[in-house]
Task: structure prediction
Amino acid sequence: MTDTPLTEAEEMLRDLSARLTDPVPPECLLCYVFRMLEHGCRGLRWARRYRDLRAPQATALVRRLRQVGAGCDCEIFWNGYVLHDAHLVRTIELDQDGRAHPGDLDYPEVMPPCQGARAGSTRPCALWRRLGRYR
Result:
């Protein structure tokens, strides 16, 4: 059977989708989810995708994320984990006279490269630290 233009286009779209949304070994769960949030947050969609593709044995992942207050992918970073301070950048704030003062710590414009995770693991790499207990 000969491929039609439609089947070729569908295959190209599947390949492109995989290149854009598959975890890149040895990318950790949190670096992957943070990267995927550029495509939006709908529940724990990206965390589940990572688990399904990289760590299918991690059947308690959703429960563990919910225990740190993450009911969706973006809440992983609101309630559960944050970059270690060493990777954050200090903002500069200007006062009314235009003088610069140190501001808050914030995420860098370009994230540092993932430190990696072993295959089958959902543990975060060394870039991330757990926030205080949610429950």
